[in-house]
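FORM 12-B: Structure-to-Sequence Request
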């Protein structure tokens, strides 16, 4: 289980309060997956969304590790598991922000936002009514039943489906 620092999403409230936006504690992930000190240092860097956009060499510099250590860590299954958990937590935080914005729009009367929330919750599924007819070549129910017994309808249906000009 990941440790989430902020359970509610708020617009840049962390910066206003003088706190750094941190989604998960890299220390918790490192301990859970028994990651090395170098792995913990890299997780700390990768937990910062701005640092994730940097070049690998710059991430290495921030973490205080070498380029070779960076790639060695990504081959380590323990680091891979910790990094996967970090990515999931970061992804969930972005989803939470999106849903929070969607809920705000729904609360102000946006029907499309409310409908989307209900769809995501599995409480609404759009339906489409589709009607169609088939001509089967029989004039009465009795003829239809006789034709079915002789498999004439199946042959006619196949001809209609393939088209009159289709070669057999």
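FORM 12-B RESPONSE
SEQUENCE OUT:
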């Amino acid at each position: 289980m990941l440790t989430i620092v902020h359970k509610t999403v708020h617009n840049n409230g962390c910066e206003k309060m003088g706190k750094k936006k941190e989604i998960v504690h890299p220390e918790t992930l490192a301990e859970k997956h028994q990651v090395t000190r170098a792995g913990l240092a890299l997780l700390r860097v990768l937990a910062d969304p701005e640092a994730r956009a940097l070049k690998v060499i710059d991430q290495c510099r921030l973490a205080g590790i070498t380029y070779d250590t960076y790639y060695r860590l990504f081959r380590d299954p323990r680091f891979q598991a910790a990094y996967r958990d970090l990515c999931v937590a970061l992804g969930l935080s972005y989803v939470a922000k999106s849903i929070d914005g969607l809920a705000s729009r729904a609360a102000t009367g946006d029907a499309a936002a409310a409908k989307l929330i209900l769809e995501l919750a599995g409480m609404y599924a759009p339906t489409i009514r589709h009607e169609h007819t088939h001509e089967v070549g029989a004039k009465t129910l009795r003829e239809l039943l006789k034709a079915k017994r002789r498999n004439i309808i199946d042959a006619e249906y196949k001809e209609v489906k393939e088209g009159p000009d289709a070669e057999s």
